[in-house]
Amino acid sequence: QVQLVESGGGLVQAGGSLRLSCSASGSIFRINTMGWYRQDPRQYRILVASITSGGETNYADSVKGRFTISGDNAKNTVYLQMNSLKPEDTGVYYCKSIHTETTGRSYQYWGQGTQVTVSS
What we know:
0% of the residues lie in helices and 63% in strands. It contains no helices and 11 strands. The chain has strands at 2-7, 10-13, 18-26, 28-39, 45-52, 57-59, 67-72, 77-82, 91-101, 106-110, 114-119. The strands form 2 sheets. Strands 2, 4, 5, 6, 9, 10 and 11 form a 7-stranded mixed sheet that branches. It has a 4-stranded antiparallel sheet with strand order 1-3-8-7, with no helix packed on it. A hairpin with a 4-residue loop joins strand 9 (91-101) and strand 10. The radius of gyration is 14 Å and the shape is elongated. The N and C termini lie far apart (41 Å).
């Protein structure tokens, strides 16, 4: 059993910054990939950024140059530094992990979501 706990969301003015964090705990043997998704009004979750355990990162075109994803493997934690925020960045951000548990089986888990609201 694995839990993902998110924090760092809030209300900011356009141009401001937030830093989201997501910490995984439980029967983890290895985290393969962690990512951040934004849920749109249709409740689809859109990939914003992801990072592998080896440090390889990917970003949605809309956030390149503004957001930075990073991870701390020792702490099983991933961060999303969000700079130059725009109103269109508003949404509920969910953390997702793809990991191997101590049983040897792989699973994916979602965090509880954290609200990011950017006012114009």
